Q: What sequence folds into this?
C-alpha cells in the first residue's frame, strides 16, 4: 500500500512538473508572438497632399511592403521608400498597387511615402501592409528547457522542443493566412469601388443617350410635319 502511494506521489509530481514547464513555455511563446512588427493600415490621402510613415527595422532582416489604392478617381499615387540614411530605394509614379521587398535591411527607421500632389480634386484611399521577417524575437531561451529534467536526472518522455516547433510553424501559417485575407479584403474593396464608379458612369451616359434620342425623335417628327403641312388656301 505504501509502495502504491509512493508511485502515485511520484506520478503526480511528474505530471505537475510537465504542466508547469508547458505553462511557462506557453507564456514565453505568447510573449514572443506579441513582438511581431507586422502592420497594416488604411488611410485617406487628400488631394494635393503626401503622407509618410516610418517603420523601424533591425539589421539584416527582410521588409516587404505591399500597397493598393482602393478608392479615388484614377486610383493611382506616387510611392517612395527611403532608407534610414536617406537613400532613395524605390520610386514609383502613378501606380495603383505594388509589392516591394527590401533585403537585407539596415538598422533604423525606413520612410514610406505616398504622394497625391499631382491630383488637385480627387482624394485617394490607400491600403498598405508591412511584413518584417528575421527580427530574431521568436527564439525561446534555454532556461525553459532546463525543466525537462527531473530531480533524479531522468528525462521526461514528452518532447517539448517538437511541440514548440509545431506551434511556431502553426503560428507562422496562421499569420500568413491572416495577411493574405487582409490583402484579399483590400482587393475586394477596390473592386467594389470600381464597380460602383462604373455603375454611376454607365447610368449617367445611358440617361444622356436616352435624352439625346428623345430630342432627335421629337425633332424628326416636328420636321416631317412641317414638310407635309400644306398652308395654301383652297378657293371656293
A:
Amino acid at each position: 500500500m505504501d509502495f502504491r502511494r509512493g508511485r502515485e506521489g511520484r506520478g503526480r509530481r511528474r505530471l505537475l512538473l510537465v504542466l508547469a514547464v508547458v505553462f511557462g513555455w506557453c507564456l514565453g511563446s505568447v510573449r514572443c508572438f506579441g513582438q511581431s512588427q507586422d502592420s497594416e493600415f488604411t488611410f485617406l490621402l487628400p488631394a494635393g497632399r503626401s503622407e509618410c510613415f516610418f517603420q523601424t527595422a533591425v539589421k539584416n532582416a527582410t521588409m516587404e511592403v505591399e500597397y493598393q489604392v482602393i478608392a479615388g478617381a484614377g486610383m493611382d499615387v506616387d510611392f517612395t521608400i527611403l532608407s534610414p540614411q536617406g537613400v532613395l530605394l524605390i520610386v514609383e509614379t502613378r501606380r495603383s498597387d505594388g509589392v516591394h521587398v527590401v533585403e537585407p535591411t539596415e538598422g533604423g527607421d525606413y520612410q514610406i511615402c505616398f504622394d497625391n500632389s499631382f491630383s488637385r480634386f480627387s482624394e485617394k484611399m490607400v491600403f498598405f501592409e508591412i511584413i518584417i521577417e528575421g527580427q530574431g524575437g521568436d527564439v525561446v531561451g534555454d532556461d525553459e528547457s532546463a525543466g525537462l529534467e527531473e530531480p533524479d536526472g531522468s528525462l521526461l518522455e514528452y518532447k517539448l522542443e517538437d511541440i514548440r516547433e509545431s506551434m511556431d510553424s502553426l503560428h507562422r501559417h496562421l499569420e500568413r493566412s491572416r495577411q493574405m485575407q487582409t490583402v484579399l479584403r483590400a482587393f475586394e474593396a477596390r473592386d467594389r469601388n470600381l464597380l460602383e464608379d462604373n455603375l454611376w458612369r454607365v447610368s449617367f451616359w445611358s440617361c444622356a443617350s436616352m435624352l439625346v434620342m428623345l430630342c432627335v425623335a421629337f425633332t424628326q417628327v416636328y420636321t416631317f410635319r412641317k414638310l407635309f403641312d400644306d398652308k395654301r388656301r383652297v378657293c371656293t
Notes: The beta strands are 39-45, 50-57, 62-71, 77-82, 88-95, 97-102, 108-115, 124-133. The chain has two helices and eight strands. The chain has a mean pLDDT of 75.
